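Exercise 7. Given the components listed, write out the predicted structure of the assembled complex. Treat all entries as one system.
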Amino acid sequence: MSDAAWWRTGAVYQIYPRSFQDSTGNGIGDLPGLRSRLDWVEQLGVSAVWLSPVHPSPQADFGYDVADYCDVDPIFGSLADMDQLIHDCHARGLKVVLDGVFNHTSDQHAWFTASRADKTNAKRDWYIWRDTVPNNWKSTFGGTAWTQDPATGSYYLHSFLPAQPDLNWRNPDVVDAVLDVLRFWFERGVDGFRLDVFNSYLKHPDLPSNPRRWHPGALAYGYVGQHHIHDRDQSDLPEVLGRMRAVADEFGAVLIGETLDEKFRYDRAADFVGDDQLHMAFHFALLHSRWTAKKLATAIRSQLNALPKDGWPTWVLSNHDFQRHPTRWGGGDERAKAAAVIALTLPGTPFLYYGEELGMVEGRLKRADIVDPPGIRFWPVFKGRDGARTPMQWTSEGAFTTGIPWLPLNPDTPWRHAEATANPLSIVHTYRALLALRRNNEALRSGATIWPDTDHADVLSWQRVVASERVRVLVNTVDRSVLVPGEAGTQVLWSTAAVTDVREPLAPNEGRVVRV
Ligand code: TEU
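Answer.
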């Protein structure tokens, strides 16, 4: 397998650095801490780590408000720590993907400080200013997307918090500046970027109001009460992505896009992948699916069908923005393992979220623990994203920090932690085994997909096929055992229920991979 294709054959492990490992005792994870935990990541068998943002930031949106793209926030360490991390990852055969938050900056970024100062400065047009509110656009985090700035009395656009002003991607200098940021990190050895809400970069040049859309939640949360045809997904976006791709290609780096889409369909993400756009884009239909064989199959197929020929699928069960899947889907550890079988055996690249290999559940936080801005604003209707960001559970006592963690540890830490892996049925074994299987099994890595492979109402099944081998995957989505008609196979390659006889019915919530 050529190195250039690591992003197709391997899996990516998302780390939320604040919550992975603290080395200073201040209760916040950092880069030296993260580095000290690379054994765990390497032993899991992933090919890359993706770090949520670590750049200097006032942390209004926990790093998704960047004040300097080319440095590291002191709470996480230094640029030298980042160089060391890149070096250590590479020495272990791990690639490093950073989070590129380029739709907006922090209001503390030097670009914005200059831009807001007066109407005639050179950076004025780097952001989107109007003397009066020009349209009905809403912020994703609630309220209007326009805030008046006292310095000049004009309004600036922010798709997220007022502390996250949107860059003006229609200004060629902004595009050049972002391309320079990409080069800065690629030259330091970074292997790729995850691009935060890339489909919002460009807005309609005339900033027209979005058409209204009826939605029951629109009164409380205006964002869902509009068709977002003018504030994102503009038809000239592919040109901009093409320029980013050209820079990535110079360095053999990879670009993975995240779309903003409140409809939870995400098909549009597929429009922006291909040889001259992004390598991959998240398609969150699987994450947002209900746990039934029918709904899951529909979600999976919606991505496979939407992708162009030169596209490549991505599979995400959990990330830092949504409730962790064992809580969302229920069904305990057995279902968490079955979900892993789905993400790790479909054609495409799995993106794992730290702690999912332990079956970490959503943290149940009290009102007083909530720090995520939308959680504070919309509690208790929306409790925010902190529950998905609780500290990694390393030992029975946590071992994330010697101090007070910035978010409380989950109460199940005494029995759910990285040292409690002796039991062969523990979740991490399914992750390790399937990741190893992918590495060594050509059918799983690159095989064509035959889908579906059963019409059983409770079971998902597909085959992965190359000339030399055929592998069948079966996922029982229900809490009772099921006998599925069709080829039983000749050998069980992995069973989440430790079944070894191919003729055995599927155990409740079992995921099974067999050679046929
Ligand atoms: O998320 C974009 C996005 O779609 C979320 O804002 C989503 O609407 C929300 O989490 C639903 O609860 C990206 C980042 O992943 C997120 O962490 C940032 O807060 C956001 O962009 C702004 O940078």
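Discussion: The domain at 3-106+170-434 is CATH 3.20.20.80 (TIM Barrel). The chain has a mean pLDDT of 96.
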